[in-house]
Amino acid sequence: MNDFTFSMPTEVHFGKDKEKLTGKLIEYDKVLYVYGSGSIKKTGIYGRIENSLKENGIDFKELGGVQSNPRLSLVNKGIEICRKENIKFILAVGGGSVIDTAKAISIGVPYKGDVWDFYSGKAIIESSLPVGAVLTVPATASETNGYSVLTNEDGMYKRGLKNDCMKPVFAILNPEFACYLPKYYMAASVVDIFAHVWERYFTKIEHSDLLDRMCEGVFKTLISKGPDAVFERDYDSVSEIMWASSIAHNDTLGAVGDFGSHRTGHEISAEYDLSHGGSLGITMCAWAKYVYKEDINRFCRFAVHVWDVEYDFENPEETALEGIRRMERFILDLGIPTTFKGANLPTDCFEKMAERAVDNDLGYVGGGFKKLFKEDIINIYKLGE
Questions:
Q1: Which residue, 74, 89, 82, 4, is CA-closest to 37?
Q2: In the predicted model, what is the mean pLDDT of the chain?
Q3: Is residue 260 a contact partner of residue 366, using CB atoms and an 8 Å limit?
């Protein structure tokens, strides 16, 4: 097992009616209330949070309109509101995009330059405002991690950022809120969670049996509970998915991984405004088909331990491929396409997306399992046609 430093400053409140604690957990008399398209008003979640704030004497300014791939322009609007109103706390009510937006605002308010400087690697975060999160979409673990992903409309660059100072001070997880999600978004969430585990599982780190078994346990939970969460919306299944989401991407399963399939998926989301889970349905399957020969034994373990494939001693490669096929069927059965064609997306932007993906100091993405250069990414997109 690798050496590591693990920090979990976020105080988690999990269960029914936990949103009533929101106002009590905030130590400021004014907050910026960040949310998405307005669905939380239709479901009544908005009002429940509003009541908790008012009961505790907290005033708030609103910032709605966060999109599924959060935009820099809205972040700048939030920064302007906070500065004008002297707001010192950001409350995010929604999924990963909303929480990522709140985090971007939190680091942008005290910074004198362009907040995009952090995402492009031109500046280092030195201070931030505290953020609280009320989760409605279990997918990204943004409620308990230090990650934020943002899209710059100037060029449609989608970039991620990680810093522990962006970890929310508290996270409220009421699985009832996720039961309101449309089937597609719950299915995309399950795929997104699967991807976060996947990219920690497929590395070349040796002597990591504990983390491997933890990952396999989360995989199996997603496989067994994911369909019920998507199609039945029963509270117990959604609860399992919601907690799986948090631990999948807050370094509980390890901080080291290969995020090549995630990075290539980001570019599909940025180019076509596809949900992140929707893009990962394409890139995970294509990535697996492209890289499995790098370590057939690892893919065989995935097939046997996760999908209960019987190991073929005469043809281990067939065992590895059967695991990939079962994963692809699982994603399709959830209602998430695994090809560009299935998602009704064009296939004429592969080179442009690959160029954006490797537009960094390294010139490649991934590396924990296999480094992906521009031509590799184009080939992966072609496998996903």
A1: 74
A2: 96
A3: yes
d(CA 355, CA 270): 13
Q: What confidence category does residue 360 fall into, taking pLDDT thresholds of 50, 70 and 90?
A: confident
Domain boundaries, the chain: 11-177, 181-383
pLDDT digit string, tens, across residues 190-248: 999 999 999 999 998 888 899 999 999 999 999 999 999 999 999 999 999 999 999 99
Does domain 181-383 correspond to CATH entry 3.40.50.10800?
A: no
Chain-centre distance of CA 162, in angstroms?
12
At 255, the pLDDT band (50, 70, 90 cuts) reads confident
What is the SS3 string spanning the chain? CCCCCCCCCCEEEECCCHHHHHHHHCCCCEEEEECCCCHHHHHCHHHHHHHHHHHCCCEEEEECCCCCCCEHHHHHHHHHHHHHHCCCCEEEEECHHHHHHHHHHHHHCCCCCCCHHHHCCCCCCCCCCCEEEEECCCCCCCCCCCEEEEEECCCCEEEEEECHHHCCCEEEECHHHHCCCCHHHHHHHHHHHHHHHHHHHCCCCCCCHHHHHHHHHHHHHHHHHHHHHHHCCCHHHHHHHHHHHHHHCCCCCCCCCCCHHHHHHHHHHHHHCCCHHHHHHHHHHHHHHHHHHHCHHHHHHHHHHHHCCCCCCCCHHHHHHHHHHHHHHHHHHCCCCCCCCCCCCCCCCHHHHHHHHCCCCCCCEECCCCEECHHHHHHHHHHCC
CATH class entry, domain 11-177: alpha beta
Which pLDDT band, with edges at 50, 70 and 90, does 2 fall under?
Answer: confident
Q: Is the pTM of the predicted complex or chain greater than 0.90? A: yes
Q: Map tokens 């599982």 to a residue.
A: 201
